[in-house]
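Q: Can I see a sequence and its folded structure?
A: Here is a first one.
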Amino acid sequence: MRDNNEASWTQVVDNLEFMADASDLPILLDGDTGYGNFNNVRRLVKKLEQRGIAGVCIEDKQFPKTNSFINGEAQPLADIDEFCGKIKAGKDSQSDPNFSIVARVEALIAGWGMEEALKRAEAYRQAGADAILIHSKLSKPDEILTFAREWAARGPLVIVPTKYYSTPTDVFRQAGISTVIWANHLIRGAVSAMQAIAKEIHDSETLVNVEDRIAAVNEIFRLQDADEYSAAENIYLSAANEKRSAVVLAASRGAGLEAVTADRPKVMLPVAGKPLLSHLVEAFKKERINDITVVGGYRADAIEKGGIRLVVN
């Protein structure tokens, strides 16, 4: 979706809940302008705390906002007092003393200059902001370093070096920057990779050339913690639902069946229009036996593998 508040704050919070379930790392929400006035910020903070989110960053632009890199100079900034009211409302609403509200200053992006940026940052600090995020669209860190020097460590400073990404991180450390957010490079990288993979599949009409460039299925299962679910099944599912397994011994050609098993084992002989093995698999599945191992030997290559696991004797 576009960076124009097209997603409602409740949709954002719903996604955050899944993220908090999946990770123990602290999550800082990019809360745009706070999704409205002081009252929206109050409710947002409460809902974020309920989901274990560590903090929210709000920016001093007007709602609905537009991405800072889209004609940023023409974007109006919020009134200082009104934005300070949002910060105070958020801090007064939090119950977790460790919940953080980061105030993002857009004055440099909007072309208002260094003096205005410092003025706003100080006002937001006095309103209770736990940190200041100073933003710049220049390809060099000059503005940021000047701001950091003038700011003189009055409070934690956060930056987003989307444009000045080539600056060594040690430069930021020496300037007293507390936190660096590489905001969208992961998303942009993922989009680029998905587009490349999709084009390759479309053009080649095969997966042969992409399998070694994508995550293994087992890696997806690991990220989903599939092993934990399997362990929980053993604890909580009743005996009636206990998984059962079947083993089909199908390694022989079949004594006396040589005339019809030259190219297949006896388990693949047709009975009533389909292989004997298919009848067996259907019978197992009707009894909720889905873990089926077939032991092949003679002409194991001719055994149809649908719905079974084939091992060769």
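Q: Show me another, different protein.
A: A second, unrelated one:
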Amino acid sequence: MTEKTFTRREVLKQGAAAVGAAAFSAWTPRKTWAKPQITVWTIGFFNPKADEIIQQQFAEFAKKANAEVNVVIVPGPQITRKLQTAVEGGAPPDLSMIYDSDTQYYRSIGQLLEVTDLINEMKKEPEGLFPAALETVEYEGKAFGVPLIISPWPLHWRKDLFEQAKLEYPKDIFEFVEVCKKLQKPPYLYGAGFCLGRALDGVDNIQNILWLFGGWMTQDEKTLSINSPGTIEGLKFLNKMYNEDKIIPPGAINWDDSGNNKAYQSRQVIFICNPTSVYSYLSINDPDLMSKTGLSPFPPGPAGSFSLIDAWAYGAFTKTKEPNLVKDAMMWMMQPDRYARLIEEAGGRAVPVYRRLTKDEFWQQRPVFSEFLKMPEYGYRVTAKSPPTPATAEVVDSYIIPDMAQEVLVRGVDPAEAAKRAQERAQAIFDRHYKRG
């Protein structure tokens, strides 16, 4: 049993004046007579300071709510599979960070609490939330999660090597290849650290390259377009980069989600396409390399220039025995001032979901983030041209895109045949979701 014990004056002291004049603020936890327990799974931020702040903020919440909160920090590359296993076993955490379209998948199978009331509170924040953040959690006017971060995927690149060689940032993807060939010194330094493995980063990096040639995963929410001339041309170009130009490390075919991070952080590659978890890591562990790193959009290809974004959300699972406590925890973490501290201490790990916060001093004093902050407005989800859906979540999590690429790069399958096979695999998933066939 809970009671509302906080006055408006106390709410103002919490820094939540912007949410309105209600007597009880969604940013402030309710007290309980008993001492309930919840478990929270969150990804690591590749930044010890940020991980410490997450633990600290949940601990403050636990004290305020007279509760026990067990925070488990799961490495980002592992959380998707770990969560799948937990849900299938009927024992998910009470609250978890969830990757992009997986939020819509868990919503579709009845695993997530509706939290529209929380989203409505967040929308009261001046300037509101980025549409990409809301797209991740909303369905038919209701919300099934709280957007946490938006992760643009800029190219991280070695400005110092360009300066030494007196080269400019490549104007298109063909010049990109030539620049990589000029600057690289294999086997110690390769040009393009693109992940080609069976991993989410593999899906994202490969799909971003296919976009440059017009190869989209979907035509719309219910129509796949993997088997297209654009995909075929993109696969041919990727094969040329890997097997002929040899600007991608041979081992990239086996990388997991951390392979490209490690390659850049150890100065073994010139470019990677990745969220700024890498930049955040460097801000703590290698400020020298951070100062030599640029963050820029993908150079355009024949079909145009396209940059990737994804979003993470907090999802509250329906099996929780403490739904009110879990919802209070979500809003505690998303109180704007508290949230801003975490995002900024994470060293630019992601763009805040609140538009207003991008104007804070932290971002404005760092010109390297100038284009990065614009990406949530024009970036594409990996599932494009469809928004995140349960069907596209399964396609992404089944690694159909990297499997298709590896057929061409490793086994020498004709790109047209590889695209055809990938479309057939994905179509079986779409047919099941949309009850066709």
